[in-house]
Design a protein that fits this description.
This protein is α+β, with helices and mostly antiparallel strands. Helices cover about 30% and strands about 25% of the residues. It is built from twelve helices and 19 strands. Strand 4 (about 100) and strand 5 (about 105) form a beta hairpin. Helix 1 runs antiparallel to helix 3. The longest helix is centred in the N-terminal third of the chain and has 17 residues, at about 115-130. It is globular and about 80 Å long.
Length: about 425
Amino acid sequence: MADDLALDEVVAFTSDLIRIDTTNRGGGDCRERPAAEYAAERLAGAGLEPVLLERTPGRTNVVARIEGTDRSADALLVHGHLDVVPAEAADWSVHPFSGEVRDGVVWGRGAVDMKNMDAMILAVVRAWAREGFRPRRDIVVAFTADEEASAEDGSGFLADRHPHLFEGCTEGISESGAFTFHDGSGREIYPVAAGERGTGWLKLTARGRAGHGSKVNRDNAVTRLAAAVTRIGEHSWPTRLTPTVRAALTELAALYGVEPDLDDVDALLGKLGPAAQLVEATIRNSANPTMLDAGYKVNVIPGEAVAYVDGRCLAGHEEEFRATLDELTGPDVDWDFHHREVALQAPVDSPTYRKMRAAVEEFAPEGHVVPYCMSGGTDAKQFSRLGITGYGFSPLKLPEGFDYQALFHGVDERVPVEGLHFGVRVLDRFLRTA
């Protein structure tokens, strides 16, 4: 079991990593190297031989392997990203890169997404080294760059250019799972991610006849684009249930003592109260217009107008997504993928999932572990190219009132010290039995 030093280290490591500003503004504007060197130094202190890898100078990834005792067993990938989204200091109660520990809480950008998990991994690995413990199966530890943008400098680069480092890995764990969800009636639910919607960021382009703003123009590119964007924004996507979402709905229905009527999902969600939040974003594809770009002067009709749409699709429903976008954009607007990644699906009856459930239940016996599908995506998408099945498992115990989902990319991101201690204990237990 993780020792007392591991509990101290996870707090210190979380705070230290937050103080290393790894803001990813997109377009290559980020430098993860200082955080990567920090992680590598602590891995080396545990007797490992971390490798630092870059596609672009300063965009550094770290990979190390812990050899297991069973050389015939499949390896497990444990990964976390080092970059964070931007934070505007003026909006925060505490400076977002202070890493301040106040009243039992660690404050700062990355506290939940996901320098807390990075710190947990380091603390567990170092505790094992002090104990002289070796896991049953090889464990590959990876800290990646660029997850908050395209992952081209991070997990995508590692999967494409350094696949040998992940030899034997069949499964992986990373962010967004095994956190406390309070349903408002006293229940504590711990959702473990066993799937992700696919990413389909779209670029829409409308073309027309440029001209003077005072003249009648039936070929106005802005009008065509606006009409298409409105159709997309107002479209009601049909319900489509993946195996993971079916399992989530079935288990939640049992927890709340209601009939799991999967033929009327909206009615079922209405019976689940706040717990419906865990699945309502993943029962259908979605497409949300997010950016518009057209024109350069108020009295000039431009010949081209562009929009961007954040599309997400469920596993097995990509073709429906494409066909629907063709219909909604119509004949006057072209569209293409600006960025695209696959949807993921992981089994909820696997030995690994059962061991994750058991590890959470050991330290939160009052909790209820359920599977769920992430509405967004993680580095598991890129690692899936190597045949690695990904789960979201970064355990965190949160008190009532700590809205985990709202803290992701939100103002005043923070994590309780006790939550980090819980995470280390659960992660340690799972990895020892995995």
